[in-house]
Each structure stands twice: as C-alpha cells, then as structure tokens.
UniProtKB/TrEMBL annotation:
<keyword id="KW-0150">Chloroplast</keyword>
<comment type="similarity">
    <text>Belongs to the protoporphyrinogen/coproporphyrinogen oxidase family. Protoporphyrinogen oxidase subfamily.</text>
</comment>
<comment type="pathway">
    <text>Porphyrin-containing compound metabolism; protoporphyrin-IX biosynthesis; protoporphyrin-IX from protoporphyrinogen-IX: step 1/1.</text>
</comment>
<feature type="domain" description="Amine oxidase">
    <location>
        <begin position="79"/>
        <end position="527"/>
    </location>
</feature>
<dbReference type="InterPro" id="IPR004572">
    <property type="entry name" value="Protoporphyrinogen_oxidase"/>
</dbReference>
<keyword id="KW-0560">Oxidoreductase</keyword>
<keyword id="KW-0934">Plastid</keyword>
<dbReference type="InterPro" id="IPR036188">
    <property type="entry name" value="FAD/NAD-bd_sf"/>
</dbReference>
<keyword id="KW-0274">FAD</keyword>
<keyword id="KW-0627">Porphyrin biosynthesis</keyword>
<keyword id="KW-0285">Flavoprotein</keyword>
<protein>
    <recommendedName>
        <fullName>Protoporphyrinogen oxidase</fullName>
        <ecNumber>1.3.3.4</ecNumber>
    </recommendedName>
</protein>
<feature type="region of interest" description="Disordered">
    <location>
        <begin position="1"/>
        <end position="36"/>
    </location>
</feature>
<dbReference type="GO" id="GO:0050660">
    <property type="term" value="F:flavin adenine dinucleotide binding"/>
</dbReference>
<dbReference type="GO" id="GO:0009534">
    <property type="term" value="C:chloroplast thylakoid"/>
</dbReference>
<feature type="compositionally biased region" description="Basic and acidic residues">
    <location>
        <begin position="255"/>
        <end position="269"/>
    </location>
</feature>
<comment type="pathway">
    <text>Porphyrin-containing compound metabolism; chlorophyll biosynthesis.</text>
</comment>
Length: 539
C-alpha cells in the first residue's frame, strides 16, 4: 500500500470532443485506460481540478500556502494552517486548465487561446511572487485607451472620472441621466433579483447600458445582460445600492468603512502597478501553472482522470482514478472540486441527486478565440496614435452589426508578442447570443472576424491576415444568470444534508469568471478547508 502524506487536488474534467474541421479545442488524453493494478494513497485534502476556464490558478491556488517549510506557497493550506501536504490531480497531460499559451518562437509570435490576462490584485501578485515569477511579470500601460465601437467609429472609454465630461461615446443627456441615477434620482429597486440590463437601465440609463455595459458583458462573460444576474455577476456594484441607497451613496459608505477598518500593511515583496491595468508574464500566462507545478514536483499528478467519489467508513472520502499506471484509489479527509459544474454534477450524482441537479443548471456558451496578424500598414490611419496601434483593445455592442465580441491588441498590450512591423490581434466570437459558431469551420470563423475588423480597424484593401490560431471552446464561460446564487446554495445545502462534510465546491462558477477572482476565491476556500480539517477531521 502506498501512502502520500499530502492533501490532494484533482481535476476530473474529461477532454471535450473536438469539433469537425478545426483544431482540437482541448488536448485529449491519448491513451486507453486499462485497470492494470490498484494502488492506495492517503491524503488530507483532495483538490479536484487544476483549474477550468479562467480558473487554472484555482486548483493550484488552494495549495498555495501549503508548504511554508519550503519557499513554495502552493495552496494556502498545509504547514501554516496545520494541514497535511497537498496532492493535485489533473485529467489532462498538462497543468493550467484552459490557460493555453502558444508560441512560434521562430516567427516571433506568442499568444493566448484561453484567458488573456489578469487584473494584478494582491492575491494574484502574491501567487506570482511565491512561485518565483516576480521578475517575469509584465503590465499593460494604464494610460492606454480602451475603445467601444459605436456608429462605425472606435470611441475611447473614459479611464478616470475626469474624462467623463469629454468623451464622445455618450450624449450630454445620457451623461446627465447617468449622474442623476448614480446619486439616487431613479426608480426604486423592484424587490426581486434584477438582471444586469434591468439594474443598469434603472440606475444609469439606456445609454450607459447600450454603449458601455452591454459590450462589457459580452467581452467578460460572452453573455446576455438581459439574463445575467446583477447580484451574482457584479456583486460589488449591486451591494453599493443595497448598502448606501444609491451607487454613489454606497461608494461613500464603503470609503468610510475602509477608513474605520484599515487594511493590514501590504506585503513589501509585491510590485506596485502604476494604475488600473492588466498583467501577464514574459512568456505568457502558462508560466504561472508551470512554475507552481515545478515547485510542487510529484505532488501534482497529470493525466489522472477521476471516475468516482464515495464516502469512506471513517471521516473522509475514497476517490478512484484512471491513470497511466492503472486504477488508483485515494483516501482523503477533504475534497475540493474545481472542475466545471457539469462535470461535478456527473461525479456527484451517485452521492446526491439534488446537488447534481443544482449543478447541472449552470450554462456555459461556446466561444472561439481567433488569433490573427496583419502588417502594421494594414491598420487604418485614423486608428493609429503617434503612428502606432495603441490601447488595450475594443469591444463591440451587439447592436452595431458585427459578430466579433471584441478584439485585444495583444502586440500593443504586452512586449514581445509579435515581430517588428506586425500587429497581433486576439479576437473572441460566439457567446450566449451567437451559439451558432460551433457549426462553423475554422476558415469561416476567420472570415467573420476579418470582415468585422475591416469595418472599423483594418483597411478594407489590406492583405489577408496571417492566421495563427483558432481555438473553439464548446463550453467556455459559466453564465451567472438570474438564480445562479440560489442554485449554488442549493448544491452546497444538498451536500450538507447528505452528510458530505469536507466536500467543497470551487472553480469559476463559484468564485467568478475572472482569473484574479478565481485566485482570490481559492485563498478563501483554503481558509475554510483548513478550518474544517482543524475542527473536525483531526479530532
């Protein structure tokens, strides 16, 4: 009998089947599973999922502080919290979930086909520093503009309050309506859960919704704001009205509360971004999961596919995997599942049909990431600033007649993404309002993106783009629809009623879809898990 003195993190999500006529959307496990032998391992914590879409860090993160005796903080659990070591398992042959960094070093290109960047909050920066990547962090220019397509023109979005009176994306009446609404001069809350569209139209007016929030929802969630829950998707903004009576009132109250309860001193090791920006790493986002995997060593098990979870006679669980070495069983005191909700639903159904039913209600629409490159001279002159394509990128409201959700100026955002004289553009297409992309071929997706870009960014007579990558994610981003929080609570409650203490749900459908939010949520989960193990599992 083998014994691993560690907590265990596992990703059981099977690779999705590739769609016809295009690159595989996820890497398959290229082997036939044969139960050659059964091995047994014991563990304090099992973490299922090395992070699904935008959550790659989540599975790792919950291990981030597990090993204070090393300089590795891989899960915020072990020595510091009195928890045993951590073992992470991942069904694929590589770490990182849907973080997919691709490089063509001989041609000078580096791009992302999953999440593209993250907001450099302190939890993410802590993970990067603890993983040895402080010197590899790269930050976008906080002064770089962001654009929204409106009436055929790319219009800059205000980056600070002082810009509000001068930007031309909104009319003067629209700005006045937004200001009055933010102050509280608007209809009262309806007494029910509001959609993002309902909340924004009521508080800030039609123009803010149609020209700012709708394209933002498309860009972040690939979602339909008429169905997204304001409380679930943008809880911080929703709480401003709840706590302060209006958006501005809530903001003032939040500032006052911060003054009464100052934050502890900031970790001096962390770099300080120069403004509101995004970040990545010198060689792309994949550097982070790779670095954490390297530090954890054999505590990370790749190509381990979870097939079942059962409650053991003692406090804990038995998990069965198909691995390259055969069938492996693991006994664990606690389990954290950071796999997609639909995979968790299948795994948990034998334990709790109520929990499985609740988890099956979350919707993941398809999204394609289309990465193409043009020569610099293909950019329209009116879109250049000081002769260069500058900015974070652009968003496209659905009302403007283009399919593409948005475009990231990858070669402008971070260094060494494209060779000299070329621009690199990452385009997202699909989402809740355009699920038909799954039936399109790779060439059709490229044609749709190129056709859209020639309407506002690319010279109509420019040469065809160089196609670097087309990645289709059939189930991409979980939608935080109206009722989302109720379904999540129903799943957790069902597990509690069934006596499945120590079985925790995590991932982007729990913490939030942004990479940084997944990291923050993982630290929060780690604290909860350590409390559980300390109070119950070790008694």
């Amino acid at each position: 009998m083998r014994s691993w003195p560690c907590s265990l993190g596992i990703r059981s999500s099977p690779p999705q089947k590739p769609l016809p006529n295009r690159r595989r959307t996820q890497e398959p496990v290229s082997r036939k599973w044969r139960p050659q032998r059964r091995a047994y391992a014991r563990s304090d914590k099992v973490l299922i999922g090395f992070a699904p879409v935008h959550v790659v860090i989540q599975g790792l993160k919950e291990k981030a502080e597990a090993m204070d005796h090393d300089d590795v903080k891989a899960i915020a659990l072990a020595t510091r919290h009195g928890v045993g070591e951590v073992l992470v398992t991942e069904a694929r042959g590589r770490p990182g979930g849907n973080i997919t960094t691709v490089e063509k070093a001989d041609e000078g290109y580096l791009w992302e086909e999953g999440p593209n960047s993250f907001q450099p909050s302190d939890p993410v920066l802590t993970m990067a520093v603890d993983s040895g990547l402080k010197d590899d962090l790269v930050f976008g220019d906080p002064n770089a503009p962001r654009f929204v397509l409106w009436e055929g023109k790319l219009r800059p979005v205000p980056s600070k309050p002082g810009d509000l009176p001068f930007f031309d994306l909104m009319s003067i009446p629209g700005k006045l309506r937004a200001g009055l609404g933010a102050l509280g001069i608007r209809p009262p809350p309806p007494g029910r859960e509001e959609s993002v569209e309902d909340f924004v139209r009521r508080n800030l007016g039609a123009e803010v919704f149609e020209r700012l929030i709708e394209p933002f929802c498309s860009g972040v969630y690939a979602g339909d704001p008429s169905k997204l829950s304001m409380k679930a998707a943008f809880g911080k903004v929703w709480r401003l009205e709840e706590t302060g009576g209006s958006i501005i009132g809530g903001t003032i109250k939040t500032i006052q509360e911060r003054g009464k309860n100052p934050k502890p001193p900031r970790d001096p090791r962390l770099p300080t971004p120069k403004g509101q920006t995004v970040a990545s790493f010198r060689k792309g986002l994949a550097m982070l999961p790779d670095a954490i995997t390297s530090r954890l060593g054999d505590k990370v098990k790749l190509s381990w596919k979870l097939t079942s979870i059962t409650k053991s006679d003692s406090k804990g669980y038995v998990l069965v995997y198909e691995t390259p070495e055969g069938v492996v069983s693991v006994q664990a005191k606690s389990v954290v599942m950071t796999i997609p909700s639909y995979v968790a639903s299948d795994i948990l159904r034998p334990l709790s049909s109520d929990a499985a039913d609740a988890l099956s209600r979350f919707y993941y629409p398809p999204v394609a990431a289309v990465t193409i490159s043009y020569p610099k001279e293909a950019i329209r002159k009116e879109c250049l600033i000081d002769g260069e394509l500058q900015g974070f990128g652009q968003l496209h409201p659905r009302s403007q007649g283009v399919e593409t959700l948005g475009t990231i100026y990858s070669s402008s955002l971070f260094p060494n993404r494209a060779p000299a004289g070329r621009v690199l553009l990452l385009n997202y297409i699909g989402g809740s309002t355009n699920t038909g992309i799954v039936s399109k071929t790779e060439s059709e997706l490229v044609e749709a993106v190129d056709r859209d870009l020639r309407k506002m960014l690319i010279n109509p007579r420019a040469v065809d783009p160089l196609v670097l990558g087309v990645r289709v994610w059939p189930r991409a981003i979980p939608q935080f629809l109206i009722g989302h929080l109720d379904h999540l609570e129903a799943a957790k409650s069902a597990l509690g009623r069934g006596g499945y203490d120590g079985l925790f749900l995590g991932g982007n459908y729990v913490a939030g879809v942004a990479l940084g939010r997944c990291v923050e949520g993982a630290y929060e989960s780690a604290s909860q898990i350590s409390d559980y193990l300390t109070k119950y599992a070790y008694k």
